[in-house]
Amino acid sequence: MLDLLLPQRCVVCGSGGGRQLCAPCRGGLPRIEPPLCARCGAPTAWPVERCRECAGRRLGFASARAAVGYDQAARRVVHAWKERGLRRLAVEAAELVAERVHAPEVEALTFVPADRGRRLRRGHNPAERLALELAAVWDVPCLSLLERTRGGRQRGSSAAERRTVRGAFRATPGAPRRVAVIDDVYTTGSTAAAAAATALRVAGARRVEAIAFARALRRG
Predict the structure, then answer these.
(1) 166: which residues sit within 8 A by CB, 6+ positions away?
(2) What value does the CA radius of gyration of the chain take, rounded to a whole number of Å?
(3) Angle at Cα 205 formed by Cα 110 and Cα 211, nearest 5°?
(4) pTM, 2 dp
């Protein structure tokens, strides 16, 4: 409600002008460019099937892609979108994803569900809003196929702790054979992997793709 009543300022630089993400800051978000790892979508020096980030890991998704790197500016966008309730940023995020990620050849999109406490506190699920916007852009159905069987804090946790979300999701039986699971941020890939491998594939999916607005980039 506040973002409808008060003059809008850019969530990254604070400038006025009536936009939640001004054109210069939008243009400055670090786009993820090829070459990429074919599996997890991490930027690489040359095209590879598996990179150091995903080699040796059992990943349930066939591929993962994201639009921008999760730098400080992208963090501010995601924080404002998730924690300050600026829901129209989902439109900006979807536009950026559609610009950088090819439309998946899937029967439906779904989304990583938020745990109940966060959903109640925020009043919305950012991943769901992103999925709905992308479904409209790509003309693909958006289905609520996943539910959490237990909560799981990820922000600030280690990579090993993030992988404990495996088994934290259940999917509706008879899931589409080809589905893309949408999330706001790709970190270690554990959330997407858990949703894809442990739930969607058990429920009948044969190919699952993971798509996010932003992804953490490994340094060095």
Answers:
(1) 190, 193, 194, 197, 198
(2) 17
(3) 40
(4) 0.89
Asked whether 107 and 176 are in contact (CB, 8 A), the reply is yes
Residues in contact with 191: Cβ distance below 8 Å, sequence separation at least 6, in sequence order:
112, 154, 162, 165, 183
**What backbone phi and psi angles, to 5 degrees, belong to 187?**
-105, -95
What is d(CA 152, CA 125) in angstroms, rounded to the nearest whole number? Answer: 15
Domain, as residue range, for 60: 2-215
Number of structural domains in the chain: 1
The answer to whether residue 220 sits within a structural domain is no
Q: Which of 97, 162, 99, 175 lies closest to 131, judged by CA?
A: 97
pLDDT digit string, tens, across residues 47-84: 999 999 899 888 889 999 999 999 999 999 999 999 89
